[in-house]
Specification:
Subcellular location (chain B): Cell membrane
Order of helices and strands of chain A: HHHHHHHHH
Helix content of chain B: 25-40%
Helix content of chain A: over 70%
Protein name (chain B): ABC-2 type transport system ATP-binding protein
Radius of gyration of chain A: 20 Å
Strand order of the largest sheet of chain B: 6-7-8-3-9-10
Largest sheet of chain A: none
Pfam families (chain B): ABC_tran
Mean pLDDT of chain A: 84
Distance between the termini of chain A: 28 Å
Shape of chain A: globular
Number of helices of chain A: 9
Radius of gyration of chain B: 23 Å
CATH topology of the largest domain in chain B: Rossmann fold
Oligomer: heterodimer
Mean pLDDT of chain B: 89
InterPro entries (chain B): AAA+_ATPase, ABC_transporter-like_ATP-bd, ABC_transporter-like_CS, ABC_transporter_ATP-binding, P-loop_NTPase
Number of domains of chain A: 2
Keywords (chain B): ATP-binding, Cell membrane, Membrane, Nucleotide-binding, Translocase, Transport
CATH class of the largest domain in chain B: Alpha Beta
Number of domains of chain B: 2
Distance between the termini of chain B: 36 Å
CATH superfamily of the largest domain in chain B: P-loop containing nucleotide triphosphate hydrolases
Order of helices and strands of chain B: EEEHEEHEHHHEHEHEEHEEEHEH
């Protein structure tokens, strides 16, 4: 457990290091502020427009979480890809840890980052909704919308391990002798994630059914990470 | 002397191409072993198998008496690996880079601080420890990279072409480090395509070409067995190849002629005492080199 914790700690730190290693020129703070302010004005403009129109379907704003699942898949894949981009793959794989531990560390790091980023986005969306509702004079619905958003947030967090696992598996396959299968698997993964998200968002599932799907997705995730480990162990092209 | 590494009939294929075709060699503890061969000969594939990055299709690797295929993870804790490409974080200082790499090998706290101090001294960059690595020359970065592989005090250090693209000063520094590590009892496995490096550093050598070990042994043994003895005659005005007793082959080189022969003494005396029809400005016995060993074994120059 200590080993895994150490790897997770260093992986979390290495996000900054990746930027440092790539040597990319970061944008001056002044411009970040300018662009940030501009984005805020645009978002405020949209919110004001929606508020004046008075026909906003608040619950649908939470659909944003749907996209976050794909983001989780892409980011997870990127975290594996970066070892090849940085030419650290050889060093990474020669570390005194099993491939399973190395991939599990990446898995948890992605999960931690996803939960954090989603939380920030959830809060931002909530403020957005709050503002539009205030303009529309629908303050009484705030609680309902917030609860609905919270439910979806928790549900998507529950599905994110599967999305992350799939992202890791896809990129490991890309670096293995099974590379030709990569585009096919990628499309398949997106379809499966889409179906899962659609089920949660639109189908009238009972709590038990949802829990069942989540449990199955977690079991599948375990298998997916194990498969990725096996491929990285036996069939990686380095 | 105990063997630190025994490699037996390693085979590895990529698609249809056989990268290794039964590579077999052993390395004695506390020695520097050179794996020499041209690009694409199978050096990197062998190194990757040794470090556990890839697995061989067939054959076995026993390192420090342990079967690497069974207990690779534990073994890697006792082995240091310096990859071909520099693996450092540019914006971080040398110290912070080493801290990161040390932690990844499970060295922590005061022990790590002490080790960082020691290795920085070893690589001669103690004064630059707080500077960002991006301000370093290629050779200095390479030295930090080697230091990163030493933090956990490995018993075996594997270096994959560690001097590619670096300045002579850093190269000499790396050579000194390797000699020092050897004195400390570390077993070194050094892959390169520079013959002069192998000559300068290694006790035993294996020459690899097309995925096969074509010769191996002590440097002197190889030179004795495969190197062609020769005499160099420098005579700028001599346009025709000189005739000398016992010459096996004569060919032009620089401003003179290279005469391959087994009769060194007779040939020297011949040129000292005879008139070859031109002024001889230099006459010397050519020191046998690994270059000529490789040439005689493969019929090609190493850097071809």
């Amino acid at each position: 457990m200590t080993t895994l914790r150490l790897l997770i700690k260093n992986e979390l730190r290495s996000k900054t290091r990746h930027r440092e290693r790539s040597g990319s020129t970061s944008m001056p703070k002044k411009w970040i502020t300018i662009y940030g302010a501009l984005a805020l004005v645009i978002v405020a403009g949209i919110a004001t427009y929606l508020g004046i129109q008075g026909e906003t379907k608040f619950k649908e704003i939470w659909y944003f979480n749907w996209g976050m699942l794909f983001w989780a898949t892409a980011r997870a894949g990127k975290s594996v890809q970066k070892e090849w981009d940085n030419e650290t793959a050889g060093w990474w794989l020669s570390l005194p840890y099993s491939r399973g531990t190395l991939l599990t560390a990446k898995f948890f790091v992605n999960l931690i980052r996803w939960v954090k980023t989603s939380a920030v986005i959830y809060i931002a969306l909530f403020i957005f909704i709050l503002y539009v509702m205030a303009l529309e004079g629908k303050g009484s619905e705030i609680f309902d919308v917030l609860v609905k958003g919270g439910q979806w947030y928790v549900l998507f967090i529950s599905l994110s391990p599967f999305a992350i696992g799939v992202g890791i598996l896809n990129w490991v396959i890309r670096k293995s002798m099974f590379r030709p299968m990569f585009p096919l698997l990628w499309i398949l993964s997106l379809i499966v994630i889409n179906i899962l998200a659609w089920l949660f968002l639109t189908a009238s599932l009972t709590g038990g059914e949802m829990l069942g799907i989540i449990a199955v997705s977690w079991i599948v995730t375990l298998g997916v990470v194990r498969l990725a480990t096996h491929i990285l162990d036996q069939h990686a092209v380095l | 002397m105990e063997e630190a590494l025994v490699i037996d009939h390693l085979q590895k294929s990529y698609d249809q191409k056989q990268a290794l075709q039964g590579v077999t060699f052993s390395v004695k503890s506390g020695t520097c072993f050179g794996l020499l061969g041209p690009n694409g000969a199978g050096k990197s594939t062998t190194m990757k198998i040794l470090t556990g990055i890839i697995e061989a299709d067939r054959g076995s690797v026993h390192m420090l008496g342990i079967d690497a295929s069974e207990k690779g993870k534990g073994l890697r804790q006792r082995v240091g690996y310096v990859p071909q490409s520099i693996t450092l974080y540019e914006k971080l200082s040398a110290y912070d880079n080493l801290k990161f790499f040390g932690e990844m090998y499970g060295v922590r706290g005061k022990k790590l601080q002490q080790r960082i101090k020691e290795v920085l001294e070893q690589i001669g960059l103690k004064d630059r420890s707080k500077d960002a690595v991006e301000t370093f020359s290629g050779g200095m970065k390479r030295r930090v990279n080697i230091a990163a592989a030493l933090l956990h005090k490995p018993e075996v250090l594997i270096l994959d072409e560690p001097t590619v693209g670096i300045d002579p000063q850093s190269r000499n520094h790396i050579f000194d480090m390797i000699r020092m590590l050897k004195k400390e009892g570390v077993t070194l496995i050094y892959s390169t395509h520079y013959m002069e490096e192998v000559e300068a550093l290694c006790d035993d050598i294996a020459i690899i070409d097309h995925g096969k070990i074509i010769a191996q042994g002590h440097l002197h043994e190889l030179l004795e067995e495969y190197s062609q003895r020769a005499i160099y005659v420098e005579a700028p005005t001599l346009k025709e190849p000189p005739t000398s007793p016992g010459a096996i082959r004569t060919y032009p080189q620089g401003e003179g002629w290279m005469i391959e022969t087994e009769k060194l003494k007779e040939t020297m005396l011949y040129f000292l005492n005879s008139d070859v029809g031109a002024k001889v400005t230099r006459l010397e016995i050519v020191r046998p080199s690994l270059e000529s060993v490789f040439l005689s074994l493969t019929g090609t120059q190493l850097r071809d």
